[in-house]
Amino acid sequence: MKAFNGFPERFEFAAVPKPFLAQVLPLIDNLDELKSTLVFFKLLYQKKGFPLYVTAAEIASDGKLDASATERAMASAAARATVIELAMVLNGRATALYFLNDERNRDAVRRIVDGTLTIENLSPAPAAEIPPPPELPDIFSLYEQNIGLLTPIIADELKEALKLYPEAWIKDAIKEAASLNKHSWRYISKILDNWVAGGRNDGTYFGDTQKSPDKYVKGKYGKFVQR
User: What is the model's pTM?
Assistant: First the structure.
């Protein structure tokens, strides 16, 4: 692995939206998507005018990825709703533009598609449309709304917990922790631990844990339910 030589005495910063760091970054598990998205932010920060967009060719060139890898990576970013991908025609040739997925740009893309906003030398490709943005999974949104910042470490903990517990249990544990003003994943994990070991207040158990709760205390996920 080639080592980094360190930052020079003077260098420029590129803006990265805080919601990306808090909500999107923890969910990205593809290196090309991450690299391409960061290149997109870097290039967008250098743009002027309105609407601001970055082309697929610009991302491929700056990110040092081939065109097909960039296309796949940005398709993932668009599916994740980090960016809005708009198919356009430039001098008779198809190209893709990428916009930051915020309210102002969603409105701009609608106007481009319906022809009320034009970009010089570019026209919408046939059947161009804005894909509906997928919602952030409930479990992550609920944590941020009730407990605190969704860091990459917390996101990984939630993903692992989803493999062990019913999603409804995790949601209820988050709500219970918030109602008690306990804003930490450790406290939520302890609530789940107690429910697995002794059942919930309503008398329900997870699967057959009433017969053998140790099933969920041992093995791969034991760290979540230590007694």
Answer: 0.57
